[in-house]
Design brief:
47% of the residues lie in helices and 23% in strands. The protein contains twelve helices and eleven strands. Strands 3, 4, 5, 6, 9, 10 and 11 form a seven-stranded mixed beta sheet that branches. Strands 1-2 form a two-stranded antiparallel ribbon. A two-stranded parallel ribbon has the order 7-8. Keywords: DNA-binding, Transcription, Transcription regulation. Belongs to the LysR transcriptional regulatory family. GO terms for molecular function: DNA-binding transcription factor activity; transcription cis-regulatory region binding. This is LysR family transcriptional regulator.
C-alpha cells in the first residue's frame, strides 16, 4: 500500500501534522516529506498550512475522497485473502432499523457470539433510510431493515415476515365500537418519523383505506409510541414484535379492522460485490435461517 497516501489521509483526517506523526509512529519532518513527495507526484498542493491549522484544499478533498475508497478496497482485499486460510473473524459493522435492532438483533448477536466468538460486531441503529445511506457510504457492512431501500449498488433479500396491528389503550371507548375508516380518521394517530419503514406502512394503510386522521403526532421511537398509546394519547399501527409484552400484560389492545394485520417483509441489505468476507457471510446465513425456524 502506498505510504504517501496513508500519511496524507491521516494528516487530512486529524488536520494536524504532530498528531498524525504520533499515530503513524513517525517523526513530524518525515510526515512533511511524505506529503511534499505526494504533492510533487501529483503536481498540485493538497494542504493549506498555517501555524495554527492544516486544511485540505479542493485538490486535497478529491484525493481524500478517492483515498478513502482505495484504503477501503485494500482492507477488504486483505480480509478476503486472510479468509482463505482462517476462520471468520474481525469486526463486522451491522446496521439495523429500530424494530429489528431492538427486538430481533440481540438474539442474532447471541447466536453469532456462541458460534463465532472471533467475530466482533459493532451496531448502528437508525430508521430504514439511515441504514440504507450508511450502507451506500460503506459505514456499515450489512443492514437489516423493515422497509424497502432502493439503490443500484444495494442487494436486498427478505428474511422474515412481520405483521402490524392497530393498537389502542385498554380504556379507549373505541374498543366498544365497530371500527370503520371514519372511526379511525377521528382518532389521534401516533406515528414514526419520516424515513421509517413503519411510517411508510402507516401512510400506505391510510391511502388504501382513504383515512385522513384529524390529528397526527410524530414520535421518534417505538417505545415512546407504545407509552403514548398506553397513556391514551392516541392509537397507532405497530409490529407484533414490539407489542407482545404489552398485550400479555393487558396494557394495550389490538383493534380488529378489515385488512389487518398488515404483512411486510424484513430485509437483509448488502452492497453488491463479487466477494464477501466470511464474517459477513456467516452472519447473513444466520439471519436468513431465522425464517426457517419461526
Amino acid at each position: 500500500m502506498d505510504q504517501h497516501l496513508i500519511v496524507f489521509m491521516k494528516v487530512a483526517q486529524l488536520k494536524n501534522f504532530s498528531r498524525a506523526a504520533e499515530e503513524l509512529h513517525m517523526s513530524q519532518p518525515a510526515v512533511s516529506q511524505y506529503i511534499q513527495a505526494l504533492e510533487r507526484e501529483l503536481g498540485v498542493k493538497l494542504l493549506e498550512r498555517t501555524n495554527k491549522y492544516v486544511e485540505v484544499n479542493k485538490a486535497g478533498k478529491i484525493v481524500y475522497q478517492y483515498g478513502k475508497s482505495i484504503l477501503r478496497e485494500y482492507e477488504q482485499m486483505q480480509t478476503l485473502v486472510s479468509d482463505l486460510q482462517n476462520e471468520p473473524a474481525g469486526e463486522l459493522r451491522i446496521g439495523a432499523s429500530y424494530t429489528i435492532g431492538e427486538y430481533l438483533l440481540p438474539s442474532f448477536l447471541a447466536l453469532l457470539q456462541k458460534d463465532y466468538s472471533a467475530i466482533i460486531p459493532s451496531v448502528s441503529i437508525g430508521n430504514t433510510e439511515d441504514i440504507g445511506s450508511k450502507l451506500v457510504s460503506h459505514d456499515i457492512d450489512i443492514g437489516l431493515v423493515e422497509g424497502t431501500f432502493t439503490h443500484k449498488q444495494v442487494i436486498s433479500v427478505p428474511f422474515q415476515i412481520d405483521r402490524l396491528y392497530i393498537i389502542s389503550s385498554i380504556g379507549k371507548s373505541l374498543l366498544k365500537k365497530r371500527i370503520t375508516p371514519e372511526v379511525l380518521a377521528a382518532e389521534t394517530w401516533i406515528i414514526r418519523e419520516e424515513g421509517s419503514g413503519t411510517r411508510k406502512v402507516v401512510e400506505e394503510f391510510f391511502e388504501k383505506h382513504h383515512i385522513s386522521p384529524n390529528r397526527l403526532i410524530t414520535l421518534g421511537s417505538t417505545q415512546t409510541i407504545k407509552e403514548g398509546v398506553e397513556a391514551g394519547l392516541g392509537i397507532s399501527l405497530l409490529s407484533e414484535l414490539t407489542i407482545q409484552k404489552e398485550i400479555e400484560l393487558d396494557r394495550i389492545r389490538r383493534l380488529e379492522f378489515a385488512g389487518t394485520p398488515i404483512q411486510r417483509a424484513f430485509y437483509v441489505m448488502k452492497n453488491h460485490h463479487e466477494f464477501y468476507p466470511k464474517a459477513l457471510q456467516v452472519f447473513e446465513n444466520l439471519v436468513r435461517r431465522s425464517q426457517n425456524s419461526d
